[in-house]
UniProtKB/TrEMBL annotation:
This is DUF1257 domain-containing protein. Pfam families: DUF1257 (PF06868). PANTHER family: YCF35.
Length: 124
């Protein structure tokens, strides 16, 4: 019986996802199997290996990625893990979009509640 849980995340850009995970300090393996309970495995494009034998993986499902893991065995705070990735990913996507559209970052600050405030502008 599989214990894998799949969480849909609003991540579409695999390259930015890869950069995000690496910037958060995770070592990645590519196109590998995610290990779970009792030797069960499932495929993922990006895999974070854990010493306890319960890995975390991201795999493409249509237009977006999903997180797949046996969270019972992985012993991580699922919500904190997803939140940290989503915040970093959103920031990287914003910065990419800002540059592509010819804007400059005028100001950036992290507020007390963890919100990142970015002011952009461009000369027209």
């Amino acid at each position: 019986m599989s214990h894998f849980t799949t969480i849909k995340v609003q991540i579409k850009n695999g390259e930015i996802l890869q950069q995000t995970l690496q910037e958060l300090g995770y070592t990645l393996e590519y196109n590998k199997k995610v290990r779970g309970y009792a030797g069960n495995k499932t495929n993922a494009e990006y895999v974070i290996r854990q010493d306890n034998g319960y890995d975390l993986g991201f795999r493409r499902n249509g237009e977006t990625y999903e997180l797949v893991a046996d969270f019972w065995g992985a012993k991580i705070d699922q919500q904190a893990f997803v939140n940290s990735i989503m915040q970093k990913y959103a920031h990287k996507m914003l910065m990419t979009s800002v540059q592509e559209q010819g804007f400059n970052v005028e100001e950036e600050e992290t507020l007390e509640d963890g919100t990142v405030r970015v002011v952009v502008g461009r000369w027209v």
